[in-house]
Amino acid sequence: MILDRFRVSGKVAVVTGSGRGIGAAAAVALAEAGADVVVSSRTEPDLTAVAERIAATGRKAHVVPTDLSDPAAAAGLATAAVEAFGRLDIVVNNVGGTYPRPLLETTAEFLEEAFRFNVATAHALTTAAAPAMLEAGGGAVVNISSNMGRIAGRGFAAYGTAKAALAHYTRLAAFDLAPKIRVNAIAVGSVATSALDLVTGNPEIRERMESATPLRRIGDPEDVAAAILFLASPAGAYVTGKVLEVDGGLQAPNLDLGLPDL
């Protein structure tokens, strides 16, 4: 059955930023498909709630509360997975993000911080995970990029540059780690997570965003989780080095920050 190719039974996954939003949805989806999951973010109560949802699927969760803005902490999750479950097969580099800021207020330090949080953490965990994946016979890495890494909008210089770097890092890492480890990314559009609450909580702004999106809605975390499962599972076995756009069909930003001409 074709649906069997979406199973990850007996596999072990690490999902960063998995206390809520896309990360939580991905962790639960992988568990529903048969994986045990290491969940990690800064907030332990959120992780505990996700772990309970994983347990309800019949799979096991290992909770690691830590500050994943530190690449060393991200890398440590590979060891945590092997110690908890004896192997590592799937990595979802979901942690990341950067607040919008006008270009002339974007300092070099702010840009470097965005790069570290969105790219260096993913690199640290990927390289730490690779030996364990090779020992297990192979694996899959899914990086969460953004549509702002391929389209332009005012105020997103740091965020968009970092996510564009993550997308190309995906292509380069896939080439280096082939054929046993696949590396792909998802360019995510506007998704209803806590990070977007500030704008989606305003009915007028939400309506404008939905109207500017070809599919006329804001995405759900499960929309992204389904794509993650495809790329991480045998269903995506012939896919590597690719960036899958899960953004409702956007070809331009659907959120205008209203920054004026200089």
Descriptive report:
Pfam families: adh_short_C2. Keywords: Oxidoreductase. Belongs to the short-chain dehydrogenases/reductases (SDR) family. This protein has 262 residues and is an alpha/beta fold. The chain has 8 helices and 7 strands. Helix 3 runs parallel beside helix 4 (108-135) and helix 4 packs parallel to helix 5 (157-177). The longest helix has 28 residues, at 108-135. It is globular and about 55 Å long.
Task: Please outline what is shown here.
The chain is α/β, with parallel strands linked by helices and about 260 residues long. It has helices at about 20-30, 45-55, 70-85, 110-135, 155-175, 195-200, 205-210, 220-230; strands at about 10-15, 35-40, 60-65, 90-95, 140-145, 180-190, 245.
Features:
44% helix, 262 residues, SDR family oxidoreductase, alpha/beta, Sc_DH/Rdtase_CS, oxidoreductase, 15% strand
Topology:
Elements (H helix, E strand, L loop, with lengths): L11 E5 L4 H12 L3 E6 L2 H13 L4 E5 L5 H15 L4 E4 L14 H28 L3 E8 L10 H21 L3 E8 L8 H4 L2 H9 L9 H12 L10 E4 L16
Parallel strand pairs: 1-2, 1-4, 2-3, 4-5, 5-6, 6-7
Helix pairs in contact: 1-2, 1-8, 3-4, 4-5
InterPro entries: KR_dom, NAD(P)-bd_dom_sf, Sc_DH/Rdtase_CS, SDR_fam
Protein name: SDR family oxidoreductase
Family: Belongs to the short-chain dehydrogenases/reductases (SDR) family.
**Structural class by sheet pairing and helices:** alpha/beta
Helix content: 40-55%
Q: Note the run of SSEs as H and E.
A: EHEHEHEHEHEHHHE
Biggest β-sheet strands, sense, barrel: 7 strands, parallel
| Spatial shape | globular
Mean pLDDT: 95
Strand content: 15-25%
Alpha plus pi helix count: 8
Number of strands: 7
> What is the distance, rounded to the nearest whole angstrom, between the alpha carbons of the first and last residues?
58 Å
Strand order of the largest sheet: 3-2-1-4-5-6-7
Gyration radius (Cα, Å) is 18 Å
**Poorly predicted sequence stretches spanning 5 or more consecutive residues:** none
